[in-house]
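User: Predict the complex with 2-acetamido-2-deoxy-beta-D-glucopyranose.
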Amino acid sequence: MLWKTVLLLALVSQVLVLENGLLRTPPMGWLAWERFRCNVNCDEDPKNCISERLFMEMADRLAQDGWRDLGYTYLNIDDCWIGGRDDNGHLVPDAKRFPNGIAFLADYAHSLGLKLGIYEDVGNFTCMGYPGTTLDKVTQDAQTFAQWKVDMLKLDGCFSTPEERAKGYPMMAAALNATGRPIAFSCSWPAYEGGLPPKVNYSLLIDTCNLWRNYDDIQDSWRSVLSILDWFVDHQDILQPVAGPGHWNDPDMLLIGNFGLSFEQARAQMALWTVLAAPLFMSTDLRTMSAQNMDILQNPLMIKINQDPLGIQGRRILKEKSYIEVYMRPLAGYSYALVFFSRRTDMPYHYRTSLTQLNFTGSGLHEAQNVYTGDVISGLRTETNFTVVINPSGVVMWYLYPVRKLGSPQQ
Ligand SMILES: *[C@@H]1O[C@H](CO)[C@@H](O)[C@H](O)[C@H]1NC(C)=O
Ligand SMILES: *[C@@H]1O[C@H](CO)[C@@H](O)[C@H](O)[C@H]1NC(C)=O
Ligand SMILES: *[C@@H]1O[C@H](CO)[C@@H](O)[C@H](O)[C@H]1NC(C)=O
Ligand SMILES: *[C@@H]1O[C@H](CO)[C@@H](O)[C@H](O)[C@H]1NC(C)=O
Ligand SMILES: *[C@@H]1O[C@H](CO)[C@@H](O)[C@H](O)[C@H]1NC(C)=O
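Assistant: Here is the predicted structure with 2-acetamido-2-deoxy-beta-D-glucopyranose placed in the model:
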């Protein structure tokens, strides 16, 4: 009897393994929440309210302004789209704000080479009080999303118990799989359990979700960026090993283009999120973005590093008394991303170090490209001393790669 149960459990856990083949690199795109929240007042604010129009206009920008071609392909709806349930219990969008329905929006996104993401909540209500996906509705809602040709689901955790979440997230993973449609699955589950073991089982999350929110919602301020960064770094021994192709930690959206970050801080968030192998979800008004912010978000070398095929999350490797920190992410081709980050608030800091001091070994020659300026620093041996000048609350970011010895055979 016991053996039968054990066998059955083994089979069940086999079935739950998430092998949807999606998100081999961190997802990139646009997500409505941080910038547009639950603005449902289309009478007074028709350009910015959560509506079909907003998503279509963002889709146009993603397709026309270079975003899509750089990899920013997800157009993701967050809370406040739901109108209710019909007589058969099917979810329906708000009829006034989404008059053509979600399938129409998905078709529109697909016609532009984009993907559509949607939002629900595993509890009685969404965080803003719209109808949730209670356990009895999981299968039906998964089928609805698949029927609409949705490509990603963010499943929030408001108004649910820990037991409901423990049942609901794996149940939704299985229900999405059963639809036969590849739908990337973003789980807010760990954020509701404090983000850490023993309450959070990261092996189980890897088997259940493609990405997960570990910690608090980001707000439009540098303080919020720092609080999230601090939490991720404090727990990097737990979090760093669990990220990889198909399963990512999500420190939440990029604020770049909004109101809370200075130029240096915007560059810093982009660089730090990139070394953390974080999803790059912009949440900003793409219709009014400055050229300066666009340069930060559309930096090809930055994106190449974020999307590195090895999918290894970086770590903070050094915290100096001078309030300089060094972050490192290993990349394909024996390359690395290095981020020199200043938490100072006085003036540009001349930070002197060497690869040896950063624990690089070997006698090989390296070259580095400054990711933001494009400058190339050549002739770097491990013992070479160099200086980077880091602005307050800013970064210097390097792409560091080995240089082939002259005359040695090409790989
Ligand atoms: C469902 O899961 C199986 C393996 O468990 C996988 O082979 C298949 O591709 C998945 N299908 C979808 C649509 O995610
Ligand atoms: C969800 O609703 C049910 C039925 O009204 C109620 O019993 C339960 O306490 C609610 N759960 C939460 C977490 O609010
Ligand atoms: C975590 O979940 C995995 C299944 O994915 C399971 O094998 C393991 O026993 C769980 N660990 C704990 C501590 O519960
Ligand atoms: C370098 O290695 C030493 C010894 O293992 C360790 O104490 C130090 O923290 C490391 N420094 C960096 C920057 O990784
Ligand atoms: C680099 O600087 C250190 C002192 O910080 C010094 O001991 C070392 O000799 C210098 N190395 C080179 C190659 O100049």
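The longest strand covers residues 324-331.
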